[in-house]
UniProtKB/TrEMBL annotation:
A Pfam match: HTH_31
Record InterPro entries: Cro/C1-type_HTH (IPR001387), Lambda_DNA-bd_dom_sf (IPR010982)
UniProt source species: Micromonospora haikouensis
Protein name per UniProt: XRE family transcriptional regulator
Superkingdom of the source species: Bacteria
PROSITE patterns xref list: HTH_CROC1 (PS50943)
GO molecular function, one term: DNA binding
HTH cro/C1-type domain span: 12-67
């Protein structure tokens, strides 16, 4: 077995020997029994608390991350910061408007650009955030050139490029920058009600993420009712999905603002549309349907401080057959909300369980999303946290 693949217990044994210590000596310095040390080193007993890793590391005079065979500085943090700066630079470029030489690069054919944008969305929905970070700067430049060359045919691709950028930035904890990308999506979509509605989904997310819940609610409702058909029974599924997704955004904003009644009314209205649309679709990258509304009810309950209701909605959502049809990003994001709910009901084991589900579903959701680090830190402070989660926390530098 390669050194980096050794279990933590085996590393404890290796470093104990390097320090010239017997199991009894290590046990004495830790205030533990020799039997406990022996079981840890043989892998019979899991190291299930961050504090235990730290105590052992102090006695062995090493960094706690060394016990996991990981680098001390989590690479994910550095990669995320550098990636966001590249996206910021791309959003700060005005080559097209200024007519600089860079703006006269080769314009991709419309079908190729559409495929590239669609691929970026699929990659995002599979929570492969580093890959999306890598392609977004070039995608934005390409889409801007195509729109400048052919404003009508290039508009949809530009709006979608800004939308996926906004979604990514919100996910990475960059609400203000996400707001800029979403605002540009709305500006580019002007005159096309469907594109405006699609762009406003991300605008609502970004406004809420940047602390502007009332503005998020207002813009989401305005866009929803603009695209809503006079009779929902006659509505086109794609437009009903956008309308429903916007109502969900408005409901989550109302929940952030503490408005219980509006939250319930808006989610009920979204639920009616979801029943008409059904599950298993992803129109305009919304994944809207009955299961998505149940997931939103759980998120809203967390915002409103109704943790037990949130757990109940979570457990209902994951029992649905359509749960597995939601994109991995959507499922993992929900599992983070569920972890918060379990914590608030005094169930850290339940929180740890759903976090590990999120890790299996979409590892990058925990490794690259700042909000996830806070939840992981809370769970790993609880007694008897899952050993796997403790190791993940240490590898991420979460304390």
């Amino acid at each position: 077995m390669a050194g980096d693949e050794l279990p933590a217990g085996r590393r404890v044994a290796q470093w104990r020997v390097r320090r010239g210590m017997t199991q009894q000596m290590l046990a004495d310095r830790l205030g533990r029994s020799k039997s406990w040390v022996d079981k840890v080193e043989r892998g019979v007993r899991a190291l299930d608390r961050v504090s235990t890793f730290r105590d052992i590391a102090v006695v062995l005079r090493i960094d706690a991350s060394v016990l996991l065979g990981r680098d001390v500085q989590p690479a994910e943090v550095t990669e995320r910061v550098e990636g966001v700066e590249r996206i910021r630079a791309a959003l700060s470029t005005y080559d097209i408007a200024l007519g600089t030489p860079a703006a006269r690069s080769v314009v991709l054919p419309a079908d190729r650009l559409a495929r590239d944008v669609a691929h970026a969305w699929v990659t995002f929905q599979h929570a492969r955030y580093p890959q999306v970070v890598a392609v977004v700067p070039g995608l934005l430049a390409t889409a801007q050139r195509a729109h400048a060359d052919a404003p009508d045919s290039g508009r949809a691709a530009l709006v979608e490029a800004y939308r996926v950028t906004a979604s990514l930035l919100v996910k990475l904890g960059e609400g203000e920058l996400g707001w800029l990308a979403a605002d540009r999506a709305v500006a580019a979509s002007a005159g096309d009600p469907v594109l405006v509605a699609a762009a406003c989904v991300q605008l609502g997310q970004a406004l809420r993420a940047s602390g502007r819940a009332r503005a998020a609610r207002s813009v989401s409702l305005a866009a929803a009712y603009r695209i809503a058909p006079p009779d929902p029974d006659d509505g086109v599924p794609a437009e009903l999905s956008l309308c429903g997704a916007l109502l969900v955004q408005a409901a989550l904003a109302a929940a952030r603002d503490g408005d219980h009644r509006a939250t319930a009314d808006l989610l009920d209205e979204a639920g009616d549309l979801a029943a008409r649309v059904g599950d298993g679709h992803d129109r305009h990258a919304t994944a809207f349907g009955p299961t998505a509304v149940d997931v939103a009810r759980a998120a809203a309950a967390v915002e409103l401080g109704a943790a037990r209701d949130a757990v109940a909605w979570h457990e209902k959502a994951v029992r649905r057959n359509a749960w597995r049809w939601l994109p991995p990003e959507h499922r993992a994001a929900h599992l983070l909300d569920a972890a918060r709910a379990y914590l608030r009901t005094g169930d850290p084991r339940g929180a740890g369980r759903v976090l590990l589900d999120a890790e299996r579903t979409a590892p990058a959701e925990l490794r690259h999303r700042p909000a996830a680090r806070q939840v992981i830190a809370q769970v790993t402070r609880a007694p008897h946290a899952p050993a796997t989660l403790v190791q993940l926390a240490l590898s991420l530098g979460v304390t």
